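Ticket 4471: requesting a sanity check on a complex prediction with manganese (II) ion. Repro inputs:
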Amino acid sequence: MTYTPYAERRQRLQAQVRQGIAIIPTAPEVARNADTHYDYRHDSYFYYLSGFAEPEAVLVLLGGEKPQSILFCREKNPEREIWDGFRYGPEAARAHFGFDAAYPITQLDEKLIELMGDRTTLFYPLGADAAWDARIIKLRGAVKAKARSGILAPGEIRDVRELLDEMRLLKDAHELDIMRRAAAISCAAHRRAMRHTRPGQFEYEIEAEFLHEFCRQGARQPSYTSIIAGGGNACTLHYVGNNARLNDGDLLLIDAGCELDSYAADITRTFPVNGKFSPAQRDVYEIVLAAQLAAIAAALPGNTWNAPHDAALNVLAQGFIDLKLCQGSLESVLKTESYKQFYMHRTGHWLGMDVHDVGEYKTGGQWRPLQPGMTLTVEPGCYIRPADNVPRELWNIGIRIEDDVLITAGGNEVLTQDAPKTVADIETLMLR
Ligand code: GLY
Ligand code: MN
Ligand code: MN
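Returned C-alpha cells:
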C-alpha cells in the first residue's frame, strides 16, 4: 500500500489532545459571482490531517484511551454528481482515508454535542472564523445544558493551530517529496520564461509561459499571484498588474511558483529582457546575488532564524555604500537603517502548504534556532526608485533573487537550484 502520512499525523495530534476533542473544518467554497466560484482550495490544516480535498467537511479527533478520528462530509448524491463530479460519501471516505467513523455533514451539530460530552479541552481554530466561533460556543452551551444528567462540557477552549503549526513547521518525507517536485516544476517555468522573453512583449505573455509550464506538469495553480515586473515595476514589491510592455534594456523581475498537491514553491529570478545585463544592472545584481549566497550559507541547523537575514543585510549594506546609494560606514548604515530606502523587507519566510507558511519565528522572545526539516525562502533584493540622492544610471533597477531552502542535518539543500541565477548562466540560457 502507498505510504500515506495522514493517519500518523492524526495520531500525533491525538497524543497532544488527550482527553480533549479537536474539531478542524475545511475551507468554505467562495462565490465569485452569480453561479461561479473561485477555484476551490481546501484548508491547509484540515488537508494536512486528512488528505481529503472535498469542501463541506470537518474532521473530529478524540484523544485519550480510545482515540477516534471521525470525518463529516457530503453524502453521495447521484443527481449532483452528474453536474459536479464524484464525491466519496461518508462510507467510502472512511474506508479510503482510514478514519474510524464517518457521518454526513448534516449530522455534525447533533454528533458534536454527543462527542463533546465529558471532554476536557476543546481545540479548534479559535478566532479564525466568526461563524465557527459562534457555532462552537452554541454547541458547547448545548452540552452544558445536559449538566443535570451528569455530562460535563469542555472547561477550556484552545486554538488547535498552536499544536498544528509546530507540526507543520517540520516537514516529513512525504511533504519534502512534493516540495522537491513543486520546486522542479517552478524551476522549469523560470527557465522557460528566460528562453521566451523578448523586448516588446507584454508582461502577461511571460505570465502565460508560467501558467503553461505549471499546468502541463500537473500543477494547476500558482501558489500565489505571479509577479511579472519589467523595469521600474520591479520596485513595487507586490506588483501584479502584469500588463506593461517589456523594454529593451530593462530588467524583468519574476516572482512565481506553482502549488503542487497543496505545497508551494516560491522563486524569484531577475534577468535582462534582451538577454544581456548592462554594467550598472550587473553591478547591482552581483551584490544581491552575493547577499543571497551569504544568507544561504548562514541557513544552517543551530543558527537562528535571523542569521540569514543578518548575513544578507551585511553584504547589501556594504554594496549600497560601494554603489554610493548609502553614505557612511557599514556600522552606521546598519545602525541608522538607511539601507531601508533600497531593501525594506525581510530575507525570507517559512514555506510549505501556505506560501507564507505557519510556525513561530521566535520562541521565548528569541529568534528560534533552525532545525533539520524546516523549509524557508531566502530572498534578498534591492529596489532603487528614482530619487535625488540616487545616481541616475541606477534608477528603476529592481532585483530580487529567491530560493527555497531545506535545513538538513549537515547544512541545507537548495530545492530550487535548477533556476539559473549567475550572470553567466542566465546570459548563456538567453543567448539568441
Ligand atoms: N511570493 C511571495 C513572497 O516571496 O514572499
Ligand atoms: Mn516570492
Ligand atoms: Mn517568498
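Notes from triage: The chain has two domains: 4-168, 170-429. Leaving this open until the requester confirms.
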